[in-house]
């Protein structure tokens, strides 16, 4: 698992789902599956912004661009 | 006394070009709608209601998103004399099957004759209809004729009397068994008059900015009917846009020189923590004279966070205000004085939780900063009652009861529920609070309800969903709310017993519970905790005791 994916995983497990230590598969659906709701999605976007220094537009906060750790890390890499 | 239609007629004849609504839509220009445009657009809907044989006094359910159609369909029903009820649209969070079941349950009680929706949504609702139910017509937004000049004499809404029911509001609960609060023209107009006085509403200067959904009382009454019927321009932001981009609220206030906004407590924190400085360049919030905190417990800390964040953009501390409101009183029960920040009562935390008389905080005790919800609005009286129904003294905590001339007519088609809610002429709110002078401090609630982001949720509805998950038995789960300072609202915790051994299996089951509850209630859960059998404490009658289990959860956390 890449460092980036692992950092995102930790944030989601600890801060959003309150299940420290939990791991997700890189291709596991996080939004369309109902694990992360729209309010938490915002937290995740802000975390990404602060941690990796890339901006995510509010129009991108949906399952199409954001659903898996893999998709999210690709967005981050393409912008950093 | 007049009716809604009389008021619209007056606007139509006397100030047709007056600005009524600025509808903001993501990625599009704002749509400016004048009174004549609103009323003519509504007239098109009134025509179709008439053509489809809908009669005055029959209920129509609107399932439409933030769009001109929602506005026109609602006011069209008013012009026609039908009773509109706005229902939430299906979101990606909720399962379509559950949505249909809820709609079906709602139809069985409310007995609407028509549902108004989009052509592409028709498939989603058709399955909700049962043989022999009340629905005669599904009206689609593409069959509406174009807007046309209005001849008020032809509108059956003009025959309504002030005591006729003008609308239904469903805001409490998560399932189709929600109670529909039926309000008359008289009740709504009395509320709007009294409330306008409390907030010194000014037709020449005020501009209302709102991102609230119209199926909620705060959205529908304070942020939709109040401006439109009182001639105040309204800027409407889509709730979905606001959640993804809360800074849009600040932009709208700045652009339109907004003066008044209502929102629940969590939104103060959400704005304060999620809006980035880069989105606030050139924003000017100095026109905002009141942002009224309402629909869930008000917190002084949330106001502080909001103020600290936005003061450099011109926000004034006294703009942060409070109200205690409920759909049963149409909307506001109390309102703080807009000239000063709401009163703060620093009390001994223990005296608050044990009931009885609240004591001022002392150096030795843990204190809570209670924020006043203000005084009763001019047409409403408040009493605080003890368990025997007797009025208590100042500072003593009891149930809030109220009496006014703007109460609901009934819970629609639920005579027994209506009867139970009243003690003589007094409506029992189920909320606890105390008075200091005339200032009301709301301290808790009698009913086991969770309020998440201003939305009322009954724990038993969520528990029922938990029992549908394989591996969890009926009676083996509890749901409760826990106030979270980081979000400024209550968050839902579910504790469920299951016979699983490994951590992985617990995660898996917790996920299933989370997913199942979320897609069937649209309520996001903060935590699902799977615990061993016999963890949950029961009352002597075998029911899960939510309060005791919440305490146990907190001890273990």
Topology:
The complex is a heterodimer of chains A (80) and B (557).
Chain A: H1 3-16, H2 38-52, H3 63-66, H4 69-79
Chain B: H1 4-14, E1 19-23, E2 31-34, H2 35-51, E3 59-62, H3 68-80, E4 83-86, H4 96-110, E5 114-117, H5 122-126, E6 137-140, E7 165-169, E8 181-184, H6 185-198, E9 208-210, H7 217-230, E10 234-236, H8 239-244, H9 247-256, E11 260-263, H10 265-274, E12 290-293, H11 300-310, E13 320-325, E14 332-335, E15 344-348, H12 349-353, E16 367-371, E17 375-376, E18 380-385, E19 398-404, E20 410-411, H13 415-421, E21 422-423, E22 426-436, E23 439-445, E24 450-452, E25 455-457, H14 459-466, E26 477-484, E27 489-497, H15 503-521, E28 525-531, H16 546-556
Parallel strand pairs in B: 1-10, 3-4, 3-5, 5-6, 9-10, 11-12, 12-13, 27-28
Antiparallel strand pairs in B: 1-2, 7-8, 8-20, 13-14, 14-17, 15-16, 18-19, 19-22, 21-22, 22-23, 24-25, 26-27
Can you put this structure into words, describing what you see?
Chain A is an all-alpha fold and 80 residues long. In chain A, helix 1 crosses helix 2 and helix 1 packs across helix 4. The two termini of chain A are 19 Å apart. Chain A is built from four helices and no strands. Chain A has one domain: Orthogonal Bundle (Non-ribosomal Peptide Synthetase Peptidyl Carrier Protein, Chain A). With 557 residues, chain B is of the alpha/beta class. Among the domains of chain B are: 145 residues, Rossmann fold (3-Layer(aba) Sandwich), CATH 3.40.50.980; 107 residues, GMP Synthetase, Chain A, domain 3 (2-Layer Sandwich). Chain B has 16 helices and 28 strands. In chain B, helix 11 links the parallel strand 12 and strand 13. In chain B, helix 2 packs across helix 3 and helix 10 packs parallel to helix 11. The model of chain B has no long low-confidence stretch (mean pLDDT 93). The interface between A and B is medium-sized, with 22 and 24 residues.
């Amino acid at each position: 698992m890449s460092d980036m994916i692992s950092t995102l995983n930790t944030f989601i497990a600890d801060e959003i789902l309150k299940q420290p230590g939990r791991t997700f598969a890189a291709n596991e659906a996080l939004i369309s599956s109902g694990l992360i709701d729209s309010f938490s999605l915002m937290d995740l976007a802000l975390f990404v912004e602060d941690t990796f220094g890339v901006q995510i537009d509010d129009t991108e906060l949906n399952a199409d661009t954001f659903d898996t750790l893999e998709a999210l890390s690709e967005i981050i890499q393409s912008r950093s | 006394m007049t009716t809604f239609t009389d008021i619209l007629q007056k606007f139509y004849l006397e100030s047709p070009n007056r600005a009524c609504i600025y509808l903001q839509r993501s990625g599009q220009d704002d749509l400016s709608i004048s009174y004549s445009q609103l009323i003519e657009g509504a007239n098109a809907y009134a025509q179709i209601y008439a053509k489809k044989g809908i009669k005055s006094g029959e209920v129509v359910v609107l399932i439409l998103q933030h769009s001109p159609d929602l506005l026109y369909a609602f006011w069209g029903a008013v012009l026609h004399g039908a009773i509109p009820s706005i229902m939430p649209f299906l979101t990606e969070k909720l399962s379509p099957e559950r949505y249909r079941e809820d709609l079906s349950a709602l139809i069985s009680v409310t007995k609407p004759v028509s549902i108004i929706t989009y052509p592409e949504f028709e498939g989603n609702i058709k399955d909700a209809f049962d043989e022999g139910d009340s629905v005669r017509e599904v009206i689609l937004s593409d069959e509406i004729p174009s807007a046309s000049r209005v001849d008020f004499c032809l509108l059956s809404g003009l025959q309504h009397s002030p005591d006729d029911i003008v609308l239904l509001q469903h805001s409490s609960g998560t399932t189709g068994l929600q109670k529909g609060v039926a309000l008359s023209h008289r009740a709504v107009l009395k509320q709007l008059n009294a409330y306008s006085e409390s907030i010194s509403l000014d037709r020449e200067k005020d501009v209302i900015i709102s991102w609230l959904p119209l199926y909620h009382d705060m959205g529908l009454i304070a942020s939709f009917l109040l401006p439109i019927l009182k001639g105040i321009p309204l800027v409407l932001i889509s709730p979905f846009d606001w959640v993804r981009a809360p800074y849009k609220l600040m932009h709208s206030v700045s652009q339109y020189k907004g003066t008044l906004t209502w929102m629940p407590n969590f939104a103060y924190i959400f704005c304060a923590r999620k809006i980035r400085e880069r989105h606030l360049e050139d924003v000017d919030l100095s026109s905002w004279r009141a942002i009224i905190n309402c629909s869930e417990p008000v917190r002084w800390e949330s106001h502080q966070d909001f103020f600290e964040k936005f003061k450099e953009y011109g926000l004034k501390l006294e703009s942060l205000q409070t109200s205690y409101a409920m759909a049963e009183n149409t909307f506001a029960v109390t309102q703080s004085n807009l000239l000063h920040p709401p009163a703060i009562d620093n009390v001994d935390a223990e005296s608050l939780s044990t009931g009885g008389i609240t004591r001022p905080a002392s150096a030795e005790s843990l204190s809570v900063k209670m924020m006043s919800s203000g005084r009763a609005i001019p047409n409403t009286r408040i009493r605080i009652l003890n368990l025997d129904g007797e009025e208590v003294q100042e500072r003593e905590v009891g149930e809030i009861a109220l009496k006014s001339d703007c109460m609901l007519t009934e819970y629609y088609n639920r005579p027994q529920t209506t009867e139970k809610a009243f003690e003589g002429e007094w409506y029992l709110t189920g909320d606890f609070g105390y008075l200091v002078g005339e200032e009301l401090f709301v301290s808790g609630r009698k009913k086991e309800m969770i309020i998440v982001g201003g939305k009322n949720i009954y724990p038993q509805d969520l528990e029922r969903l938990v029992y549908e998950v394989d591996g969890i038995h009926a009676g083996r789960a509890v749901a409760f709310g826990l106030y979270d300072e980081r979000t400024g609202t209550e968050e839902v915790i579910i504790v469920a017993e299951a016979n699983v051994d490994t951590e992985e299996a617990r995660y898996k089951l917790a996920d299933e519970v989370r997913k199942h509850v979320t897609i069937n209630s649209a309520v996001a859960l903060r935590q699902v905790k799977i615990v061993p059998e016999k963890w949950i404490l029961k009352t002597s009658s075998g029911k899960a005791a939510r309060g005791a289990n919440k305490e146990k959860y907190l001890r273990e956390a």
